[in-house]
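sorry for the late reply, my laptop died twice this morning and i had to redo everyting from scratch. anyway the thing you sent over, i finally got around to it. pasting the sequence first so we're on the same page, its 135 residues, then the predicted structure underneath. double check i copied it right bc i was rushing
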Amino acid sequence: MIEFRIDRRSGVSTYLQIVQQTKQALRLGLLQPGDQLPTARAVVEATAINPNTVLKAYRELEREGLVEARRGMGTFIRKSLGRTPPADSALRAELTEWAGRARTAGLDKDDAAALCASVLDDCFAHQSSQGEANV
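ok and here's the structure:
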């Protein structure tokens, strides 16, 4: 089961952090269709946030069709996201190795994330422009 981590200094609203963490778990295959999300009460106890915040996040996930609330039973995953390789894949191992080198080189998490985002933007923009040229 997923454990939400709330970063009060991130500038991202609490409910959105729950939504984002759920989507990330879906993309990584950590949550599968049929899995149950923690109850609002359990999230409140673990994170000390308002129950309405958890319910707002779960409603947003439901609105997006990712979860379904079953009265008296809880909130369950309806579908997965993406095609992320499994946690033990070669791609993940290479990325883990790269992240270690970035940290050794003095980059902090935000610096490494910015570098990754820039490279991904370049790679995928190039890929989509090639695809458009072939149309």
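Strands lie at 67-70, 74-77.
thats about all i looked at so far, will dig more tmrw
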